[in-house]
Specification:
Elements (H helix, E strand, L loop, with lengths): L8 E5 L4 H12 L5 H20 L6 E4 L16 E5 L6 H9 L21 H6 L5 E9 L7 E6 L3 E6 L7 E8 L9 H12 L6 E5 L2 E4 L13 H12 L5 E7 L4 E7 L12 E5 L2 E7 L10 E7 L15 H24 L1 H19 L3 H7 L4 E4 L2 E4 H7 L2 E5 L2 H8 L8 E3 L5 H11 L4 E5 L1 H7 L5 H17 L5 E6 L8 E4 L2 H16 L1 H14 L9 E6 L3 H6 L5 H18 L6 H18 L31
Parallel strand pairs: 2-8, 12-14, 17-18, 17-19, 20-22
Antiparallel strand pairs: 1-6, 2-3, 3-7, 4-5, 4-7, 5-6, 8-9, 10-11, 11-14, 12-13, 15-16, 21-22
């Protein structure tokens, strides 16, 4: 520690209650004592920057972990942590002024404004070391001249400054003797991990000195110059994401000295997730998950960004939400929008790949985000009666767009939709919201919601000459399907090849599905479902039923009116019902499957000239309770 001969030493008091400050730092400002090394690295890097302005020399940071202090430091002990730099150093006056005043910094210009090429404030940064040590010792020699100086600060609120007679190299070394509970943070494994985390991309060499030799910890940042080594940029993104990114977007804002890259995720993030940015200030890590650097809508991008013009908070673990950050957010968002637009023009197949991965997330956000909706909607896809289409193609081909709210409604209405019209399936997640927004984004387009009952009512009944026969057919066929709770209507559908259509509004479909479910789950859950029925559809009475719409324009249906054999008529109606269920992608219940099996067997028998056995009763009628229909046949009746 040098000799005391001729040394001037005087005990002085901090200008604040140091114990209260340390408590404030550890409990309310810094997230962890681990930041002590980041603060020391920031101070050392700033000192090197300052020396370059004085004599153009200096440029190395050396870290010696606990229990490995080399004798050359003159410490006289091997039980301390040392971080040394060959930066500008400090004079006795500077030490007393800067270290006694929390937050004071030498890193200001002649107008007393903060300098963008420095990272931190020396005073408060150094005090973070009290979270891992009870005593901090600094030994320094200034490049501007003057005697070497030593500063020793204690957690009890006192410090001592003295000039040294011994020779020290220009620069500063910080010596820490750990607190009883913090020794591991100053040993080689933790020190190496922290230094690589915070300082791997610093523009000055950081060397780790241990008994095994000297290890360099810093290297070039691939994300700062992506055009120079695209392979390294992609590899860095692969390590960051755990998978190869879909693409790399260069992000820059010259006004704030911000640059980096955005990696387009090759997988869909969890719903509602907001992608965090790995943020560096002056190439020192600020935060692994800064969530306010990119716009909210850019959930599909994970960015790595460095800046010299953004302002950190007091903890230097997040950014101040000021005008500079707002500008960066706008500029980076504009770069991501340009990427989407250029991809659509130059490589539409890659844009289709991107949309396929992130479509659900994009659709969820455009409901509330006008900015995203304006530039991304045209590439999203929807299912229509003309096949899967992009919204851009949809609005270019049709000025009147009809949509169904559910998949079941779409399948039913699609069967009777006119070929020159378009019907969109709004039953998939967020698709109905997307279609409803189209008039806002494309004023020339009108949107109409359709429902099953309304579409059925629009169909024309048979001509007056055939009306009586159609009514008789409806009554006769309804009696056949009474066992499955289905009514029959005859309408004229402008598709002669379509014999029948299964039609039921969403409330009826839900009731039928719950009835089937109650038969499977038993009494306990059946009672729960009954209460759900009452809560969801309190006004739904027994009159609500599914309908089989027979197409009066179809030759099979027209021939069915003249069938006199009751067995042939019944089996034909039953098969038309099953066919309509399958065409509408409706699941077959036990009763439906029994009906289909019996109908097919009897029709085969009739075709072979064999008199079929009388129709067997259905096992369970689809009524609102679990009991068979009152008119169900007894199996023993023959």
């Amino acid at each position: 520690m040098g000799t005391d001969d001729g040394a001037h030493e005087e005990a002085q008091q901090f200008q604040v209650d140091l114990r209260g400050v340390v408590d404030l730092l550890s409990r309310h400002i810094y997230s962890s004592p681990r930041v002590y090394l980041r603060e020391l690295l920031q101070n050392a890097r700033d000192a090197i920057t300052a020396r370059h302005e004085v004599d153009g020399r200096g440029g190395t940071i050396r870290i010696t972990p606990l229990a490995a202090t080399p004798p050359s430091t003159g410490s006289g002990t091997a039980e301390e942590f040392v971080l040394a730099d060959d930066g500008v150093g400090l004079t006795a006056a500077e030490v007393a002024e800067l270290l006694a005043t929390v937050g004071r910094s030498s890193k200001r210009d002649i107008f007393d404004l903060p300098r963008s090429d420095y990272l931190g404030q020396f005073g408060i940064g150094l005090l973070s070391c009290f979270m891992v040590a009870d005593t901090i010792r600094i030994r320094s020699r200034s490049a501007r001249g003057g005697a070497p100086v030593e500063w020793i600060g204690s957690a009890d609120g006192t410090f001592r400054v003295r000039e040294l007679d011994e020779e020290l190299p220009i620069g500063t070394s910080v010596h820490l003797v750990p607190r009883f509970d913090s020794a591991d943070l100053l040993r080689a494994p933790a020190v190496r991990e922290l230094a690589e985390t915070f300082a791997e991309f610093l523009p000055v060499p950081v060397l780790l000195q241990t008994g095994g030799g000297t290890t360099p910890l810093t290297h070039a940042a691939p994300f700062l110059e992506p055009a120079q080594d695209p392979v390294a940029v992609v590899q860095y993104g692969r390590e960051l994401l755990g998978a190869t990114p879909l693409d790399v977007i260069e992000l820059t804002d010259a006004a704030t000295g911000t640059r980096g890259v955005g990696y387009v995720l090759p997988y869909a993030p969890p719903p509602g997730a907001r992608q965090a940015t790995r943020m560096y200030l002056g190439r020192m890590l600020l935060s692994e998950r800064a969530d306010d650097v990119l716009p909210d809508w850019a959930f599909f991008v994970r960015a790595v960004v460095d800046s010299t013009g953004l302002n950190p908070t007091a903890s230097r673990e997040s950014l101040v939400d000021d005008e500079a950050l707002a500008r960066v957010r706008d500029e980076l968002g504009a770069a991501i929008r340009r990427w989407v637009l250029e991809l659509g023009l130059r490589e539409p197949h890659r844009l289709a790949q991107f949309v396929a991965v992130h479509e659900v997330g994009l659709k969820s956000l455009i409901r509330h985000d006008d900015e995203l909706a304006r530039f991304i909607t045209r590439w999203l896809t929807v299912e229509t009666t003309h096949g899967t289409m992009t919204v851009g193609d949809l609005v270019e081909r049709f000025d009147r767009i009809r949509y169904a709210e559910s998949v079941d409604e779409f399948r039913q209405v699609a069967g009777i939709s006119r070929p020159e019209q378009v019907l969109v399936n709004g039953g998939y997640l967020y698709d109905a919201d997307l279609i409803r927004r189209l008039p806002e984004l494309h004023p020339a387009v009108s949107v109409e919601r359709v429902d099953v009952v309304g579409e059925l009512d629009r169909l024309d009944p048979p001509p007056l000459d055939d009306r009586a026969e159609a009514v008789a057919l409806e009554d006769r066929a309804s009696a056949v399907l009474a066992e499955v709770g289905c009514q029959v209507v005859v309408r004229m559908i402008d598709q002669p090849e379509l014999p029948s259509l299964y039609v039921a509004d969403p409330a009826v479909l839900r009731r039928l599905d719950r009835t089937r479910t109650k038969g499977i789950t038993g009494a306990l859950w059946g009672g729960v479902l009954d209460r759900i029925d009452d809560a969801v559809s309190p006004g739904e009475g027994p009159a609500a039923a599914a309908r089989l719409c027979l197409n009066g324009a179809n030759r099979v249906v027209r021939a069915l009116r003249d069938v006199g054999d009751d067995a042939v008529f019944a089996r034909t109606v039953q098969l038309l019902y099953i066919q309509a269920l399958l065409a509408g992608h409706r699941p077959l219940g036990d009763a439906d499957r029994a009906l289909m099996t019996g109908a097919l067997a009897d029709l085969v028998a009739l075709s072979a000239g064999v008199v079929p056995v009388a129709p067997a009763p259905l096992p369970v009628a689809l009524t609102d309770d679990d009991s068979p229909a009152p008119d169900a046949l007894d199996p023993e009746d023959g």
